[in-house]
Amino acid sequence: MLAPYTQVVEELKVKLKGIRKQFEYDSRHSPIEFITGRVKPIPSILEKAENRKIPLEHIEREIQDIAGVRVVCQFVDDIYTVVEMIRARKDLTIIEEKDYISAKKESGYRSYHLIIEYPVETIDGMKKLLAEIQIRTLAMNFWATNEHSLNYKYKGSIPSEIKERLQKAAEAAFKLDEEMSMIKHEVQEAQRMFHRK
Ligand code: 0O2
Ligand code: 0O2
User: Fold this and answer.
1) What GO biological process term is on the record, naming one (predicted)?
2) 10 lines ligand 1 (CB under 6 A)
3) What is the CATH number assigned to the segment(s) 3-196?
4) What is the pLDDT of residue 81?
5) How far apart, in whole angstroms, are the C-alpha atoms of residue 144 and residue 69?
6) Does the CB atom of residue 146 touch ligand 1 within 6 A?
7) 184-196 helix and 160-182 helix, angle to the nearest 10 degrees
8) Contacts (Cβ under 8 Å, ≥6 apart) of 156
9) Domain residue spans of the chain
10) What is the spatial distance between Cα 19 and Cα 47, in angstroms, rounded to a whole number?
């Protein structure tokens, strides 16, 4: 069942990396810094299914992030540029958008999520599969990676003192994004000069 999901992740990675390459050829600022992707490990799929009482035969429809791709950007504006570019594509269909940037999660989590339907050719014919694209800044990614590790360590029940620190850290990360946005043009000009050199 998971084999076509691996195909989806690899294809999406190639396509999104292609966007970055095209900006580089043009010596233009790429809204994409880097891409990562993964197929959700089987134990995580089963755990999510159990927690949400999803019967095994409904997993493909109800667990939307079996295939997951993450697009990491330098600036908050870049996130919306990437969203626009994905909305304009003809090779996938957006099923749902979740803007956890304007409406952050209670944990402090910020990111823009797109749930897409992606047609993949398999040996048994074409199959449309769901995938999740998470789009976030480097600062949001730093926070989410650390929070994810702590969640793992504390099995989802992070002590309240650490939770508060994480919420403060999330605000600090967002402040960093805002401050960097103020000097975005300076940074981009410097990067263009470096690239030409
Ligand atoms: P590039 O050309 O360096 O961007 P693959 O299957 O080989 O394509 P892999 O290694 O399985 O890719 O990719 P994975 O694990 O999904 O994502 C790792 C990619 O993200 C690597 O790039 C890393 O260089 C990049 N990456 C991860 N964390 C960071 C980070 O903090 N900063 C930066 N700049 N890049 C990061 P690739 O795929 O090797 O390609
Ligand atoms: P993984 O692979 O371990 O990251 P919903 O049904 O919409 O309420 P669902 O389906 O869980 O909830 O979707 P949601 O919350 O939109 O996004 C799911 C994924 O977003 C998570 O995947 C995380 O990758 C990421 N995410 C959401 N909230 C947080 C958060 O508070 N902290 C961190 N670090 N990441 C978050 P999984 O399933 O947790 O799996």
Assistant:
1) guanosine tetraphosphate metabolic process
2) no
3) 3.30.460.10
4) 96
5) 15
6) no
7) 70
8) none
9) 3-196
10) 35
Q: Is the pTM of this model over 0.90?
A: yes
CA 12 / ligand 2 centre spacing (Å): 19
Biggest alpha carbon distance in the chain? 57
For a pocket test of ligand 1, which of 13, 36, 72 has the largest count of ligand atoms closer than 8 A to its C-beta?
36
State phi, psi for 76 to the nearest 5 degrees.
Answer: -60, -40
Cβ–Cβ < 8 Å for 122, 7 = yes
Query: Which residues are CB-neighbours of 51 under 8 A, at least 6 positions away?
Result: none
Using CA atoms, how far apart are residues 46 and 66, in angstroms rounded to an integer? 11
**Can you tell me which residue has the tokens 């009482």?**
53
Please give the Cα distance from 131 to 153 (Å, whole number): 27
Are 79 and 73 a contacting pair, CB within 8 Å? yes
Worst-scoring range by mean pLDDT, 2-11, 15-24, 57-66, 185-194?
185-194
Which atom of ligand 2 lies at the shortest distance from residue 148's CA?
Answer: 34
Question: What does the block give as tokens for 8?
Answer: 């989806």
Structure tokens at 110: 């910020």
DSSP per-residue codes, 134-149: EEEEHHHHHHHHHHHH
